Inverse folding.
């Protein structure tokens, strides 16, 4: 049985391949997290048409955003709460 000889250029290619695989895994994991975080903002902005603040008081804006995000949570799980027949 002959042992396989690993030449330096093979080793460099293998290291580069490992680097690319690791980078791709990191990109995929961050994009999954970003998608989960940004979806409620998409629902609030496009479904409930909240584009800008309307009130001068900070408490009013805070209360409005709390209600909108609570509604967006209900909107996103509406299929689980009331499944279609």
């Amino acid at each position: 049985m002959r042992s396989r000889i690993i030449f330096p250029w093979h080793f460099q290619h293998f290291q580069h391949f490992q680097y690319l695989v690791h980078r791709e895994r990191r990109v995929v994991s961050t994009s999954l997290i970003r998608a989960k975080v940004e979806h409620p903002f998409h629902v609030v902005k496009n479904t409930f048409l909240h584009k800008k603040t309307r009130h001068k008081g900070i408490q009013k804006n805070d209360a409005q955003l709390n209600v909108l995000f609570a509604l967006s949570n209900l909107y996103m799980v509406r299929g689980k709460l009331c499944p279609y027949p």
